[in-house]
Amino acid sequence: MLTGCMLVTGSSRGIGLELIKQLVGRRVVSPKVIIATCRNPDAAGELQDLQRDHPDTVVIKRLDVTHYESLGRFVESIKVGQTNLRIMQTLYGVAILYI
C-alpha cells in the first residue's frame, strides 16, 4: 500500500480527472490522500462527486499554475494540512514545489 499524498494537477477534466478516478477505484496500491487541484473547483462537478464518494481520500484545492500568487497560496495551504507528499503528477510539463 502506498502511503502519503499524491498531488494531481488539472484534476477537473481529462487525464487528471481520469487518473483520480482510477486511483480511488484501486484497493491495493493507492495513495492515502489525493490532493486534486484545478483552477475553479466550484465548476468541477465530477471531481466534487469523487470527493463526496471518497471524503477521506480526495481533497480538492484551488490552483492556477499560470499565476504565481495562486502557487503561493496553494503551497501555504498544503503546508498546514497534508504533508508527506510522495508523488506529483502534472500535465503542464514543468512543476516547481517550494515545500
Topology, please?
Blueprint: E1 5-8, H1 14-25, E2 33-38, H2 45-53, E3 58-62, H3 68-80, E4 85-89
Parallel strand pairs: 1-2, 1-4, 2-3
Terminal-residue CA separation: 24 Å
Q: What structural category do the secondary elements indicate? A: alpha/beta
Say what the CATH topology is: Rossmann fold
CATH class designation: Alpha Beta
Count structural domains. Answer: 1
Mean pLDDT comes to 79
Proportion of strand residues: 15-25%
- How many beta-strand runs? 4
What's the total helix number? 3
User: What is the string of SSEs from the N terminus onward?
Assistant: EHEHEHE
Helical coverage, percent range: 25-40%
CATH level-four homologous superfamily name: NAD(P)-binding Rossmann-like Domain
Low-confidence stretches are none
Can you tell me about this structure?
It is a single chain. The protein has 99 residues and is an alpha/beta fold. 34% of the residues lie in helices and 20% in strands. It is built from 3 helices and 4 strands, in the order E-H-E-H-E-H-E. Strand 1, helix 1 and strand 2 form a beta-alpha-beta unit. 25% of the residues are buried. The model has no long low-confidence stretch (mean pLDDT 79).
Supply the key terms:
34% helix; alpha/beta; Rossmann fold; four-stranded parallel sheet; 20% strand
Task: Give a short overview.
With 99 residues, the chain is α/β, with parallel strands linked by helices.
